[in-house]
Amino acid sequence: MLDQKVWYVTGASKGLGLALVKKLLSNNYRVAATSRNLDELKRAVGQVREGRFLPLQVDLKSSESIDQSVKLAYEYFGQIDVAVNNAGYGIGGAIEELSQQEIMSNFEVNVFGSIYVIQSVLPYMRAKRYGHIINISSIAGVAPHTGWSIYAATKSAIIGMSDVLAQDVRSMGINVTVVAPGGFRTEFNSAESLVVADYKIADYLPLHEGIKQFAANHGKQLGDPEKAAEVFIELVESDNPPTCLFLGSDAYQRATEKYNKLLEDMQANKKISERTDSN
């Protein structure tokens, strides 16, 4: 029997979150999982032996809701070893097309929800001097496509936050890994999960066409959620997990091209960068 670690996973009723929860339960881990819809989560996961699974209805825009769910998970299992900030959604549209509400809602779920989870689980991990936090970003946080500025901003924020968090808690025996997936065969591209700006400006027609093409790729993505779930478990069981992992050959390729171009631009403008140094 594998180590009986307790995992807390957000956004677990579908996609990568659901694949991970099912894989964990099949490998005898104990799991607390969250969703906006408790019945949907229970149906998706199915029957589980008592004492191994705790489904939780959570509003990720509410720090109180998150904190209460983490407390319930700790009371139920007696420990929280791994937290996976998986919940999130994509939002497409040019910046001037998106309303303040559309922008804030995306940040509330994709960024602030993750921060609230981290703030809630860290006291338990610090007390134990052990834990692993996995934050799901996206390749869009490094190499975004046109039309996804706000979504890219949220996922870039997750990468920056995770990098510093990893440094802050490493001495306490806590690992942090930010995962930047490419395209996976989940509901992410579907109309159910993808939000597009209600307001449209004709000048951005090429951008709108790109978003339509992205949505049309639903079900054709390269990544396999089952294999991603296996990778997440390997990360936690690893003696030396990475701080950042690009998941999928498409994500790896896009990141490589982006960083190579960034380095090329840095070197081409090195003299300008140095010109502001005091003598």
UniProtKB/TrEMBL annotation:
Superkingdom assignment: Bacteria
Stored SUPFAM superfamilies: NAD(P)-binding Rossmann-fold domains (SSF51735)
A family per Pfam: adh_short
Keywords, comma-separated and alphabetical: Oxidoreductase
Similarity field: Belongs to the short-chain dehydrogenases/reductases (SDR) family.
InterPro entries for this protein: NAD(P)-bd_dom_sf, Sc_DH/Rdtase_CS, SDR_fam, SDR_oxidoreductase
Species of origin: Paenibacillus cineris
Protein name as annotated: Short-chain dehydrogenase/reductase
